[in-house]
Every structure is written in structure tokens, then in C-alpha cells.
């Protein structure tokens, strides 16, 4: 018994005696070379469409004076965040599809986690602000431009970016303090806090609780606030004229679709201990590659003002080319 106690070291001792991990191996979505080529093509198309669609929304809003309103100011911010959000993970995933070694340095992994949570948390706060903007516009239209003045919009935008930065720094600060001495395989196609802390050579129970208290609580609280806000909006629409009610309902439906797709992932991943489920990768694909593409589709195809502005901009470009 004494010999066994001497031979079997604990995790702390292992962390001290073994060399620290300098890189991680990303398991990815598939090990089949043919399937990886198919996935490369699929995600390359999705990423290209994501960049083109969101960039087009930003350019259209900046170009058209009629869209210089609080709602479209926040929508342009959403498109910019979606471009950044997908760029954090998708290019690395595309490169790994064509590479035999799917490795990422420790510093690269930390950077990926930081920017992933920065953009994700900022988008959560932005969606909440957008719900507040629609609440004021529909429930208090006479004072809308006063309440949502340009100065207030800039202040709200700065606040949500600051909040996302603080959230991300808090998570990364907890994660990088943990000792990593092996194994090195991250069970996903990108670095995220839950699968990475599972590789730590120490007990991570307290860190997991803090992650749930941080990311999970933010996701759940914002989701509840959003649902309640849109519930109040729907109740207030009962006495509106049919045309105004239809337009408001269309806008709210688009917002709710984005909220459900985006916050659904956050609640599923970050509101539970870091236990792996087979559905995690599928949910992560929607979170990082599909949802950023759906946003421009949802907000353009369902929005008459955006379609009008796009047609106007394309028409001007055609006319200038003819001249």
C-alpha cells in the first residue's frame, strides 16, 4: 500500500513534474479525408456568403440616409459583429480541413477563446439593446427619437462592447491560470472554455461553477428579458392598425428568430458543467458558421426598408456603369 501511494502521484504533482502544454490538437468534425474536402467546400461557401451578406448590410445602411436610424445603427453593429464572430473560428477550421495536423498554439487557443467570447457576449448584449429599441419605438413612439438619440445609441454601443470585453477577460483570466500538462486534444473544431478546461491537470469544479454563473447566467437572463420585452410589445400591438401591426410583427419575428438561434447555443453550452455531448459540435457549427449567415437573410428578406435600399443602391450602380 505504501509503495502504491509513492508510485501514484496526484494531479498537482503531475503538473509540476511534466512539461507544460505549448499547443493543442483540435479533434475537428471528421477524420475522413473525402468528408473533410466536402466540408471544406460547404463551409467555404457559407463563410463567403456570411462575409458578403453582412458586409452588404453595413454598406447599405451607411450609404442610405433613410436608414440612419437607431434600429439600423444597431443592425449594422450586429452585421459587423457577425463578420468578426465567424472569422474567429471558420478560417482556422477551413485550414484544418486541408491539413493533416490540426494543431493550434497555446497562445492561439487563448486568443481564439478571448475573441470568441468577446464577440459572442457583445452580440448577446446588442440583441438585448435591439429589443429595448423596438420596445421604445412601438410602445412609446412619440418620444422615440428623444429616448434613442444619437448620443444614447453611441453610449449603448460603447457599453455593450465594454461589457463583452470584461466578460471575456474574466473567463480567459480563469482559464489560463489552470495548469495544462496533457492530454492535448480539444474535442471540438475550435478552442472554447468548456472543452479546454477539461484538459487541465487539476480539479476544475469551481471554475465550471463560475463559468455557469458568468456565461450561463448572462445568456439565461438576457433571454428572459428579451422574451418579456417582445411579449410586452405584442400585447401593445393589439390596438394598432393592420399595416403598422404587420410591419412591427415582422421586425419582432426577425429579432426573435435571431435571438432563439444564438442564445439557444449559449444556454445549451454554458448553462451546464463541461460535460461533452455528441450534439455539442452540431450546435457549435450553427453558432459559429450558420447563425452569422442567417442574420443578413432574416433581416433583408423580411425587411421592406432594407430591400428598398438595396434595390436603390444596385439601381444607382447600374446607372453609373451605363454612363
UniProtKB/TrEMBL annotation:
Q: Where is the signal peptide?
A: none
Pfam (any one): 7tm_4
Topology in the lipid bilayer is annotated as:
Multi-pass membrane protein
Q: Which InterPro entries match?
A: GPCR_Rhodpsn (IPR000276), GPCR_Rhodpsn_7TM (IPR017452), Olfact_rcpt (IPR000725), Olfactory_Receptors (IPR050427)
Q: Which CDD domains match?
A: 7tmA_OR4E-like
Asked if the record carries the keyword Amino-acid biosynthesis, the reply is no
Keywords in UniProt for this one?
Cell membrane, G-protein coupled receptor, Membrane, Olfaction, Receptor, Sensory transduction, Transducer, Transmembrane, Transmembrane helix
SUPFAM superfamilies documented for this protein:
Family A G protein-coupled receptor-like
Regions crossing the membrane: 37-59, 71-90, 110-132, 152-176, 217-237, 249-270, 282-301
Query: Any idea where the G-protein coupled receptors family 1 profile domain is?
Result: 53-299
Q: What is its main location?
A: membrane
Q: Where in the cell is it found?
A: Cell membrane; Membrane
Q: What PROSITE patterns does UniProt report for this protein, alphabetically?
A: G_PROTEIN_RECEP_F1_1, G_PROTEIN_RECEP_F1_2
Indicate the family of this protein: Belongs to the G-protein coupled receptor 1 family.
Q: What protein is this chain from?
A: Olfactory receptor
Identify the species of origin. Answer: Gekko japonicus (Schlegel's Japanese gecko)
User: Gene encoding it?
Assistant: LOC107125256
Amino acid at each position: 500500500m505504501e509503495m502504491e501511494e509513492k508510485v501514484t502521484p496526484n494531479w498537482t504533482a503531475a503538473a509540476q513534474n511534466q512539461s507544460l502544454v505549448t499547443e493543442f490538437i483540435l479533434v475537428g468534425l471528421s477524420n475522413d479525408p473525402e468528408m473533410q474536402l466536402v466540408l471544406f467546400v460547404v463551409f467555404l461557401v457559407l463563410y463567403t456568403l456570411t462575409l458578403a451578406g453582412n458586409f452588404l448590410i453595413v454598406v447599405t445602411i451607411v450609404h442610405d440616409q433613410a436608414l440612419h436610424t437607431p434600429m439600423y445603427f444597431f443592425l449594422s453593429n450586429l452585421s459587423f459583429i457577425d463578420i468578426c464572430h465567424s472569422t474567429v473560428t471558420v478560417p482556422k477550421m477551413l485550414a484544418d480541413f486541408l491539413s493533416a495536423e490540426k494543431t493550434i498554439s497555446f497562445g492561439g487557443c487563448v486568443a481564439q477563446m478571448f475573441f470568441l467570447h468577446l464577440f459572442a457576449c457583445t452580440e448577446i448584449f446588442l440583441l438585448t439593446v435591439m429589443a429595448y429599441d423596438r420596445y421604445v419605438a412601438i410602445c412609446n413612439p412619440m418620444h422615440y427619437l428623444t429616448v434613442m438619440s444619437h448620443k444614447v445609441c453611441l453610449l449603448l454601443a460603447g457599453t455593450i462592447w465594454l461589457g463583452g470585453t470584461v466578460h471575456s477577460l474574466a473567463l480567459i483570466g480563469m482559464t489560463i491560470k489552470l495548469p495544462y500538462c496533457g492530454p492535448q486534444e480539444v474535442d471540438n473544431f475550435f478552442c472554447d472554455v468548456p472543452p479546454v478546461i477539461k484538459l487541465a491537470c487539476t480539479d476544475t469544479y469551481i471554475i465550471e461553477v463560475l463559468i455557469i454563473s458568468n456565461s450561463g447566467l448572462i445568456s439565461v437572463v438576457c433571454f428572459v428579458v428579451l422574451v418579456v420585452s417582445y411579449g410586452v410589445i405584442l400585447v401593445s400591438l393589439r390596438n394598432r392598425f393592420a399595416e403598422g401591426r404587420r410591419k412591427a410583427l415582422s421586425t419582432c419575428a426577425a429579432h426573435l428568430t435571431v435571438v432563439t438561434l444564438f442564445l439557444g447555443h449559449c444556454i445549451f453550452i454554458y448553462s451546464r458543467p463541461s460535460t461533452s455531448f455528441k450534439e455539442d459540435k452540431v450546435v457549435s457549427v450553427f453558432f459559429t458558421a450558420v447563425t452569422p449567415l442567417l442574420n443578413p437573410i432574416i433581416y433583408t428578406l423580411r425587411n421592406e426598408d432594407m430591400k428598398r435600399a438595396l434595390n436603390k443602391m444596385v439601381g444607382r450602380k447600374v446607372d453609373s456603369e451605363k454612363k
